[in-house]
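Box 3.1 A note on notation
Throughout this textbook, protein chains are presented in two layers. The first layer is the amino acid sequence; the second is a token string describing backbone geometry. Keep the layers aligned when reading.
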Amino acid sequence: MRDIVIEGPHTGEVITVTEPQVWTLIGVLAAALVGVITIVMSSFSRQMAVSFGALEKQIESVRSELKSEIGAVRSELKSEISAVRSELKSDIAHLERDVNFLHRREIDDPPA
């Protein structure tokens, strides 16, 4: 197995990866990387929680708006159906009056 070598900056001698300073540097960089990942993930999860809360409020507002719109349509339909129903009753009453008139004229008082 070969050692990874790094040339020293001032003396020109070769540093092997087995020296404690190199392992300390690797450990510090790994800890820094883990710390940054932890901070980013916690920030991301907080941001997601805030976003989901805002989305939930928007959905609730749309839901209440839809309920009010559906209620308005329902009441409008009820009034329209009531108007059509009363109009039909009036038309049926006129038809019944006309049929009774024709019945009396033809059956009760036949033409001579």
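The two ends are 133 Å apart (CA to CA). The first strand starts at residue 5 and ends at 7.
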